[in-house]
Amino acid sequence: MLTLSLLFAVLDANVVSAQNVTSYFESERLTQILNKVHALQLGKVGALVAQFDTSKNWNWILAEGSLPENTNAVTQLSTEGAYTIIDMDKLKYATDLSLARTIIHEMVHAHLLLSFIYKNVNASVEYPGIVRAWAATPTPDYNAIQHQEMAESFVDDIALALKEYNYYENRFTDNSVYIDLAWGGLDFENNVSLNDYDRKRIQITLAKAQLNGYEKAEIMTAFQ
Ligand SMILES: [Zn+2]
């Protein structure tokens, strides 16, 4: 995994910086997808994008790196801001929409991390569930707490953002596909608002988007 100091040493990659969002992606494709995500305007995701562009110290840094098994991307706090690492080895077959979903998901993590650093009072009012979950145990799993918040209050807006993304690409699909993709990275297996049929459909939609026709045999075994 890249350390932050190493991250800043790798400056020969495609360095893209717009306001407070800085990326060091090696992949031109990923850079372009980030730029398109950065142009989204609708719903909560659009508001998050605007916040990154207009808020002091609201820094989000992105790079590629190797991550542990079953981890495609992570976002953590650093002294420079929130920083995201995406493991493109694991996502090399993913559709553009699936990669946009990954970036948006990590952007929500970055937003939640920074919210509690720089706007503590507002964040506590806006995300009381996070405050409660944090206080409920001496060893809180902050990633899981953020995922719970996303499951409760971001799935529809991530879906809307994916629909907006596809609209600008002149691609169209059923709204249910955007919702299914928005569950990516979240604990849909145990969510009580979903039934077994929903969970299986979400699992297959996510697997198809990530593998994009490759490794079909693996879908049959790993995702059923
Ligand atoms: Zn996550």
Care to describe what's here?
The chain has 224 residues and is α/β, with parallel strands linked by helices. The protein has one domain. It is 55% helix and 10% strand. The chain has eleven helices and five strands. It has helices at 4-9, 28-37, 43-54, 96-118, 120-126, 128-135, 142-153, 155-168, 175-182, 196-211, 216-222, and strands at residues 16-18, 21-23, 60-64, 73-78, 81-86. The protein has a five-stranded mixed β-sheet with strand order 1-2-3-5-4, with helices on one face. Helix 3 packs across helix 8, helix 4 (96-118) crosses helix 5 and helix 4 packs across helix 8. The longest helix has 23 residues, at 96-118. The model is unreliable at 1-14 and 217-224 (pLDDT under 50). The protein binds zinc ion (ZN). Zinc ion binds at residues 105, 109, 147, 185.
